[in-house]
Automatic annotation (TrEMBL):
Keywords: Endoplasmic reticulum, Hydrolase, Lipid droplet. GO terms for cellular component: endoplasmic reticulum; lipid droplet. GO terms for biological process: cholesterol homeostasis; intracellular triglyceride homeostasis; lipid droplet fusion; lipid storage. Gene3D superfamilies: alpha/beta hydrolase (3.40.50.1820). This is Lipid droplet-associated hydrolase. It comes from Platysternon megacephalum. Its EC number is 3.1.1.13.
Length: 337
């Protein structure tokens, strides 16, 4: 498997004390042979090359939902890094193929090396994250994993498959870890995702030829219901005019409907002291019933119900609020470092 960096963008300008101007680096790499976008907050661009005396004690890694576009979490990781007093790197790694690669880079790597089979599927996305850690993070690096939506399922699977990971905490935001097809949203979308998704490719292909300003206006129209839409989300959504990107997003989603069925209570029980769950009150992907049942099964677990009306796709308009909550939740482990 390869994870060689093809190119990296310039760091955004910095101004001390400003959350919007914290050091942020963008990289496009091949991981498991698939195009992958990585956003890194903090001055540590390469943890494997950093001298031990300046190596951070902890890495925060965000595992996204679906669409797994790293750009949706740009505001979130900046706010989290700022809330952590800029002491620890905060990274987000996209799902394999959930990005529009820069010019000169294909969606898959042109190589004779046999890569992971079905890297764009749900199983492949889990191995993709583990491979990213193996290739980019020191083995003894302590981790805080933050999963969002299907990223929570992936996070639990990572902890199950790689027990050697030095995970201090895993924060599971709006966790789709069971019965996805039976959820209100799943009942609506499963037939489309599993049987009819191919008919969506042609409209996306035709829309891809529109001028950027027209695409931007279309995204703004779709997000018009948000009071304060995140500007990063608007720009990131333009990736969804790429047929390859949309095909990978929908393929992964179809597998989620079929494979995310039973909650993995064994893995949860084994790691319960490391886990923080955060459910939404009106979340159509993981309804309140799922919260009540897991709370009953694990009465001593840190399982919370949102009382602030934050939507499942919190990155669209509540990134700073969620980042502030996480910083507060993790004070116990941060003070012990």
């Amino acid at each position: 498997m390869t994870a060689d960096m093809l190119g990296a963008g310039e760091a955004e300008s910095t101004r001390p004390g400003s959350e919007e101007q914290v050091p942020l680096y963008e990289e496009f790499i091949y991981c498991c042979g698939a195009a992958t976008q990585v956003l890194k907050c903090g001055p540590w661009k390469d943890l494997l090359e950093t001298e031990s005396k300046t190596l951070p004690r902890l890495l925060f890694l965000i595992i996204p939902g679906n669409p797994g576009l790293a750009g949706y979490y740009r505001t979130f990781i900046r706010a989290l890094y700022h809330g952590l007093n800029r002491q620890y790197p905060v990274w987000v790694v996209s799902h394999a193929g959930h990005c529009k690669p820069p010019n000169g880079m294909g969606m898959t790597e042109d190589t004779d090396i046999k890569e992971l089979e079905d890297v764009f599927g749900l199983h492949g996305q889990i191995e993709h994250k583990l491979d990213f850690l193996r290739k980019n993070v020191p083995k003894d690096m302590k981790l805080v994993l933050i999963g969002h939506s299907i990223g929570c399922y992936i996070t639990l699977e990572m902890m199950k498959r790689a027990s050697e990971l030095q995970v201090l905490r895993s924060v599971l935001l709006f966790p789709t870890i069971e019965r996805m097809a039976q959820s209100p949203q799943g009942k609506l979308l499963t037939p489309v995702l599993c049987k009819l998704r191919y008919i969506l490719y042609m409209p996306v292909y035709l829309l891809s030829f529109l001028p950027e300003r027209v695409k931007t206006s279309m995204v703004q129209f779709v997000l018009r219901g948000l009071k304060y839409p995140d500007e990063a989300s608007i720009l990131t959504s333009l990736n969804l005019f790429s047929v390859d990107c949309v095909a990978n997003v929908l393929y992964m989603a179809s597998q989620e409907m079929m494979k995310v069925v039973e909650r993995d209570s064994t893995t949860i029980k084994q790691n319960i002291k490391k886990l923080i769950f955060y459910y939404g009150v009106a979340d159509n992907w993981c309804p309140q019933q799922y919260f009540e049942e897991i709370k009953m099964d694990f009465p001593d677990g840190d399982i919370r119900l949102c009382e602030k009306g934050i939507r499942h796709a919190f990155v669209l308009d509540a990134s700073r609020e969620v980042a502030a909550m996480i910083t507060d939740w993790l004070q116990d482990i941060l003070t012990r470092l």
